[in-house]
Write a structure and sequence with these properties.
Number of helices: 8
Number of domains: 1
Keywords: Membrane, Transmembrane, Transmembrane helix
Radius of gyration: 17 Å
Order of helices and strands: HHHHHHHH
Structural class: mainly alpha
Transmembrane segments: 12-37, 43-63, 75-96, 102-125
InterPro entries: MFS_trans_sf (IPR036259)
Low-confidence stretches: none
Largest sheet: none
Distance between the termini: 49 Å
Protein name: Major facilitator super protein 42
Strand content: under 5%
Number of strands: 0
């Protein structure tokens, strides 16, 4: 029996999960984190909203440099280190006792989430698919929607 060595389906499944966590935590999470921080600390909405802004601005610094980072360190290393950075940042949101700590946490979560966002999904899927790339991307990007449902449901 001949066993296929094409790992495209596994890549799509892994990228789907990457999108679930990337968008679920990194894109849909900050407003939820903001509410939790306000409830826990009593800090103003303006201050906590500024942290959400820092989260997304920090992400732009990484996402515009993803091609260079992939070239230098490789996609797997950047993705794993980004996931770890996101986790540290989210933990920081939960324990910040001073505004400066919150802003560091927001920057870390922002740096991390984009390594599992749209550009990362595209970079992961593209080498594996040519003619069926649109379908593979569609399946992988569905993870973003599932992430929103799973991580933002209250």
């Amino acid at each position: 029996m001949h066993q296929s060595s094409f790992f495209g389906r596994k890549v799509v499944a892994a990228t789907f999960l990457m999108a679930v966590f990337g968008w679920g935590i990194g894109f849909y999470g900050p407003p939820i984190f903001m509410y939790a921080v306000i409830q826990r600390t009593g800090w103003s909405t303006a201050l906590c909203s500024a942290a959400v802004t820092v989260h997304f601005l920090a992400g732009t610094l990484v996402v515009v440099n993803l091609p260079a980072l992939y070239k230098r360190y490789g996609l797997p290393w950047i993705t794993v280190s980004g996931a770890a950075t996101l986790a540290v940042g989210v933990y920081g949101w939960s324990i910040a006792n001073q505004p400066w700590q919150l802003f560091i946490a927001a920057a870390l979560s922002g740096f991390g989430w984009v390594t599992m966002g749209a550009a990362a999904v595209n970079a992961t899927i593209s080498p594996w698919f040519v003619s069926k790339r649109p379908g593979a991307l569609a399946m992988a990007y569905n993870g973003a929607s599932i992430g929103g449902v799973v991580f933002s449901s209250g």
